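Hey, resending since the last one bounced:
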Amino acid sequence: QVRLVESGGGLVQPGGSLRLSCATTGITFGLNAMGWYRQAAGKEGEGVGGRTSGGTTYYADSVKGRFTISKDRAKRLLYLEMTDLRPEDTATYYCAASRLMLARTQAQYDYWGQGTQVTVSS
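The structure tokens again:
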């Protein structure tokens, strides 16, 4: 059974950093694509970035150069390292996993965590 649990959200000042973690059960990093999405209040969900089963990462233009996706295979964790945070990054962040080796759209993800809130404010 697949289970994803995010943690690490919180309140941070503009320019600050946070690292989100996604604890995984039932996922094989070498077989499943994974990604991060976010949804701000009153707005549609937005793909933040993802990681193919082969390890290639990609990012939305809005976070490129500031966010990094990585994994710890031994701990079965997926990370989202966020730097230079801006008020517009405020959202609930979700970890997602796909049965596919490459997933680039929200519809291609099959499993979702419960989300963790990130608030960027002074």
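The chain has a mean pLDDT of 95.

Sorry for the duplicate.
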